[in-house]
Amino acid sequence: MSEAVYYKVSYVVEDGKHPGALINVERKPEVGDEVIFDGHLFVITDVAELMAPMGDFGFLHAACRLIGQAK
Length: 71
Fold this sequence. Notes:
Shape: elongated
Helix content: under 10%
Number of helices: 0
């Protein structure tokens, strides 16, 4: 089995003005990280594990706040 862990992250935007996204990533997101999806820049405000990792795959929920348009 590989030592790498991949994550499926459910990004939920705090104010609900954006639908969020479901994205596969190679690194676990951390509070304060910035992420770009749908042409917008967001800052992560909370990360929670949705269920225990299965093999080399983890499932996470990340709350985020819209910062603005991505450059």
